[in-house]
Amino acid sequence: MALALIAVLGIVLGVAIGAVGIGGVLLVPALAIALELDVKRAIAAALFSYLPSCVVAVTLYARRGSIPWREAWVLCAAALPGAWLGARVSHIAPGGLLEAAIGALLLTGGLYALRGPGEVANRRSYIPIATLLGLGAATGFIAALTGAGGAFVLLPVLLLLDVPILPAIGLGQAIALPIAGLASVVNLVEGLVDLRLALILAVTLSVGIAIGTPIAHSLPQAALRRLLGIVVVLAGIAMLVRAAVH
């Protein structure tokens, strides 16, 4: 039953990641709440599972021309030191504090998703290198600290900068790869990664992303964002309640 639940969870969240760029952030609270997994081990498993699934996502988005590579390379390079620091801090931070941080992140992101990105679909703005470096470092730190997908942290900011939604999602998929890779090295050294769990999640997330990516390139985003926003807000409230009870 637990394996079936993990598989379903991976596919559903993979579809969300492929379709709207946000979904991986729900993986840690789902593992912590539904499976009662220690939050630090949940973060480690989630980050490790992003490695192959991110490769799938980046490949599919790149084939459709939805990844601006100039921005992607700068963001990914800047994310590395932030990811290393975030992974280190997550090992020494109290579990309850991490749960509260994840809950607050979920609540903020869910409310943003409900608000919507505005009319930015046909506009593209040049992002200065200094801005990209700052965004990459901050995204790496927060994503590695909480186990959230890089897209969840980066996407709202990119939309505020008038980056169209498909390139914004593509950049979120790209930055998640180095973050997950570096953080997973740290987590493996610390013995926090449940390889069986992580591999099941990796396969099912990849399947879901393969399903969700065509949706992103063919359907309006508004309804999907609203639905995901509701789910993320509810998960954030549940995570905050769990942190308060513990």
Structure explained in plain terms:
- By secondary structure, the protein is mainly α.
- It contains 10 helices and no strands.
Summarize the structure.
With 246 residues, the protein is mostly helical.
How would you describe the oligomerization state of the chains in this entry? Answer: single chain
- Low-confidence sequence ranges: none
Order of helices and strands: HHHHHHHHHH
Report strand %. under 5%
Mean pLDDT, all residues? 83
How far is it from the N-terminal to the C-terminal residue, by CA? 26 Å
Beta strands, count: 0
Helix-strand makeup class: mainly alpha
What summary fits the major beta sheet? none
Number of helices: 10
Overall 3D form: globular
Radius of gyration: 16 Å
- Count of discrete structural domains: 1
Helix percent reads over 70%
SSE order and pairing:
Blueprint: H1 2-20, H2 27-34, H3 39-63, H4 69-92, H5 95-115, H6 129-146, H7 150-160, H8 165-189, H9 195-216, H10 222-245
Helix pairs in contact: 1-9, 2-3, 3-8, 3-9, 4-6, 4-8, 5-10, 6-7, 6-8, 7-8
